[in-house]
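Need tokens for this chain, all 561 residues.
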Amino acid sequence: MAIASSDAPLQTVAPAPLAASSEIRHYEYVCDDGTIYVYDMDRSHQLVRTISLPQTESGIRGVTVDPASHRLFISYGGDGLGFYGSVLAYDLVSEQVVWTVHLNAGIDSGQVSPDGSRLYMPTGENTPSGVWNVLDTSNGAVVGTIQGGSGAHNTIASNDGRYVYLGGREYDYLDVYDTATGAVRGVGPLKSGVRPFTVNAANTLAFTTATGFDGFQISSIATGKVLFTVSFGPVPQGFPITAPSHGASLSPDEKQLYVIDSPNKQIHVYDVSRVAEGVAPSKLGTIAVAGLSGTESPCAYDCGRGGWLQHSLDGRFVYVGDSGEVIDTANRQVLTTLPPLLNTKKMLEIDWAGGVPVATSGRTGVGHVGSVPPPGIVPPGPPPPPTAPPASQPFAGAPAASALAEVVLGGVGSVAGVQQSVPALARVASIRHMSIFPRSFRAVDWNGAATRRRSSKPAATVRFEDTQPSTTTFSIVALKLASGISRHACADGSGTVARRCYRPVTIGRFVLRDRAGWNRLGLSGWLGARKLSAGPYRLQAVPSLDGRVGAGATVAFQIVP
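Here are the structure tokens for all 561 residues:
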């Protein structure tokens, strides 16, 4: 990975709108390949500025902002299958590129953490591994990884910083990464691979769209179960967009959900205010749009006009990517059209006051009920009653691949602040830098011995660092094809390839008393008297010290015949 800094020219098409005034000004940033267009939301969406970033002409995949540091992060370039991507940090105040990193991996639509310290960057929808890289926002260094579902694609960091939601395009569960424990849990199974989605502020409800499905689903994050499925009708044969509902945005007051219906060139609006009480979503209206077909032009890559939706922070507007419309939510009518928005699905709001950014919407319209509102925004409703956090174990029925997090914090860059929620004097163990070599190996031949014996040479060696001397429990989880499916398609007839239909089977555990610092153990390919059969596995390590369970880590390995 190379780290470099560079400057980029700025072109102003009107007097600078970001003057040092105490008045809060609201701007919509429409990010096309190579150029960002800035519109004044309070003054009839006048185009007030363009920013030239020619290095992003290779194709912008995601944008996210940390107002406190004034930085706009853009991911651009390849999204897997051998095509690598890059990320740059642009200072909105000094109008310069602060750093650029060229990753040895793909990129996609990531999001910065609420405290601005970490950037959660998927390795791309074409990447089978399902890994999200964790970048240090101060310099772009990769300081960790998270193991999510295959086809790492869309990302949402919760308003309170407790969770990161991971949407794998080739994975039928929405993954929920716990930033305090490192555990990953799955919501689903869903209709098919996760596409655009949104969540509420209390981290209790997820609203998802899916590959090959015209409609949306609502799920409980607490239980991992689907609550409601709403279909807009069958997808026409040969329809060119793989996600017919490629856009879902929740109003800040969490009462309405806007969802794209590309086959019919419509945006549907649903009342979702009582779904947590078991009341099904009800349709409020439909808005016709002109785009959502054909291809973006000019365009570097992935040019289909699939669409995207984003609410403004105050809920006044909804922006329709790949179509261009700005919808007035008060009357559900098209207010105006922004020409560059017909050619991109990457946009967000950035609010300014006193000459600096003070708030951002993010790419996805998420709920804000009960969360701290951005400056100048009236809270959308009373805070919800306190609820117990979800259990740390995987949800019932969630596959092991989503229930395990491979977190490798440290190495390059600082990891300060990872355990900020833990009292300073508390001793909490944390597993870091866990690795296994080789990742694929044959079980050591023990000649059918019925008792556990040591081989003169292990089949594989596991190395990890523990921050405290602790008792670490290791679980071996096999990933097996779900019952009732063939090796060509899932049982539901969706045509899903077999690798997306694995389910977890925890086949055993063992305990190790380790030491602070580096530790090493050998794997033989046996668990007690049981020889592991050929197939994919996960080794999960969870440390415990003084009754406190610390952050664990997981590595994947393969037993070969």
